[in-house]
Amino acid sequence: MSIAPDGLPPLREVIARHGLSARKALGQNFLLDLNLTRRIARAAGDLTSVTVVEIGPGPGGLTRALLAEGANRVVAVERDRRCLAALAEIASHYPGRLEVIEGDALALGLADRIEGPARIIANLPYNIGTELFVRWMTPEASGGGWPPWWRSMTLMFQREVAERIVAQPGSRTFGRLSVLAQWRATAQIAFEVNPAAFTPPPKITSAVVHVEPTDQPRDVDPRMVEAVTQAAFAQRRKMLRQSLKSGFADPLTLLAHAGIDPARRAETLSILEFLDLARAASAARN
Questions:
Q1: Domains identified in the chain and CATH numbers
Q2: Closest Cα partner for 160 from 152, 172, 170?
Q3: Rounded to whole angstroms, how far apart are CA atoms 235 and 175?
Q4: Phi/psi at 117 (nearest 5 deg)?
Q5: What are phi and psi of 275, to 5 degrees?
């Protein structure tokens, strides 16, 4: 048996030995290049004093990189039972530093399981990546608050999703994800990943996004930010006076209080204008 630089067998051998063919139904695309996975780990910053949360580790390519880069503790959430034996081998190689939780990340309350500073680092399954990101950016929906339980997120997405997260007002990709990511956090694309890096290769290019929380404006209700962005972008081609009707009874008064022209469209508003709209909506409801 050959040995990789981290002292464990090459990932291709691990996958073959455990019969771990990627399943489309689980959104799986495995990363086998340990140089690439270590690049992802390094993009997250210093890992030596934090807990790293990884979603969908699969055979453990990124997991191995996180541990090799000095992660103090890795908590890996894996839904696919077939992968547990391979992950157990990694845990044995790094005693006391890897905890594997079998389960669905969408159903787990991770904030209750993590103590101390944490970084989320993951090659997210494509079929749940966006939903997980929205949940982590809006912890109030599950009883949490801001700053969140995570110190940073370094996440692999489809490139089009990554572009929406970092998009600026006025661009064709600016939307709800952009506002949710940027009104109280910084977000940037660290680098892109070619489809050939995955097994099996997806039909699209991927990108790694790094997000860090910032201070929250004190006078803005996060639930109202979510409400106005959801309504405004639900029918993004329509003027705000029309699109906001899906969430608010009197859009014209709301827009007047926020000082926004009702003939404008959602993608033309700045982040600050969305916050003004959220303030006006809160005042109207109170």
A1: 11-213 (3.40.50.150), 222-285 (1.10.8.100)
A2: 172
A3: 11
A4: -65, 140
A5: -70, -40
Pairing of strands 51-55, 206-213: unpaired
**How far apart (Å, rounded) are the C-alpha atoms in residues 104 and 119?**
19
CB atoms within 10 A of CB 250: 12
- Mean pLDDT on 235-247: 93
This prediction has a pTM of: 0.92
Find the helix packing angle between 271-285 and 251-258, rounded to 10°.
120
Nearest-angstrom CA–CA distance, 266 and 175: 8
Task: Give the pLDDT confidence score for residue 86 in this predicted structure.
Answer: 94
208 forms bridges with which residues in the sheet?
156, 191
Cβ neighbours of residue 156 closer than 8 Å, sequence gap 6 or more: 40, 122, 123, 124, 129, 193, 206, 207, 208, 209
In angstroms, the CA 278 to CA 129 distance is 26
